Amino acid sequence: MTARKRVAILISGRGSNMRSLVEAARAPGYPAEIVIVVSNRPDAPGLAWAKSQGIPTLGLDHKHYESREHFDGQLHAVLTASRVDIVALAGFMRLLTPDFVGKWLNRMMNIHPSLLPAFKGLKTHERALAAGVRISGCSVHLVRPELDDGPILAQAAVPVLDGDTPEVLAARVLNAEHQIYPHALALFASDQIKIDGESVRISGPINQERALYSPSL
Ligand code: GRF
């Protein structure tokens, strides 16, 4: 069996997606292991949870760095020292410098609560409701220097229902996020994807249909 890929998860807050990755990685045969969780907010609840699970954690307070470049330089040093293969952003609320993104090109993924390329950025659910879309969802993508941009690894479609508030829709989408992120990481870590320009092709035994996933309500 090939060695499991070493994954760092970067968070800023609650960390529910991190938790879904940690829990998935406990399954025998899962192709990745979580070797460190880093937060730019040392008081992030998700960091305390990861620590309680015995996972190495690090609070790297961005306020202690004079520039984005210094912060990202330190982050890169930490990831390199932990021999990280893949970086998984999970609610990491900080822009990364193009230099850092370049160093982790095609080795760093992110989850966003919309069907990209629609509704990049913040206040996703508010904007989806204002636009009147009937289907929203979530996307896991490889990270590019532009915000919420990059080849899409997996998406889940989630219905928008009459009377939805941003909070209600967010909770429905979050449930789908917890399903597709572990799936996308498994695809990626088991080398079952090929990056073809700015899109991704899936090969190998993992069912392709699961990369377009419609969870039941
Ligand atoms: C998720 O909705 C994720 O898609 C977005 O930020 C939120 C983080 O939630 N990038 P959590 O910290 O994983 O619970």
Beta percentage is: 15-25%
Write down the secondary-structure element order. Answer: EHEHEHEHEHEEHEEE
- Find the structural class using helix and strand composition: alpha/beta
**Which kinds of small molecule does this entry bind, naming each only once?**
5-O-phosphono-beta-D-ribofuranosylamine
> How far is the first residue's CA from the last residue's CA?
37 Å
* Share of residues in helices: 25-40%
The tally of helices reads 6
Rg value: 17 Å
State the low-pLDDT regions, or none: none
Determine the mean pLDDT. Answer: 93
Q: Characterize the main sheet.
A: 8 strands, mixed
Report on the architecture of this protein.
An 8-stranded mixed β-sheet has the order 3-2-1-4-5-6-7-10, covered by helices on one side. Strands 8-9 form a two-stranded antiparallel sheet. The model has no long low-confidence stretch (mean pLDDT 93). The protein has 6 helices and 10 strands, in the order E-H-E-H-E-H-E-H-E-H-E-E-H-E-E-E. It is α/β, with parallel strands linked by helices. Helix 1 (16-24) packs parallel to helix 6 (166-189). The protein is 32% helix and 24% strand. 5-O-phosphono-beta-D-ribofuranosylamine binds at residues 11, 13-17, 46, 90-91, 111-113, 174, 177. 5-O-phosphono-beta-D-ribofuranosylamine is lined by residues 11, 13-17, 46, 90-91, 111-113, 174, 177.
Considering the chains and any ligands shown, give keywords for the structure.
10 strands, 8-stranded mixed sheet, binds 5-O-phosphono-beta-D-ribofuranosylamine, two-stranded antiparallel sheet, 217 residues
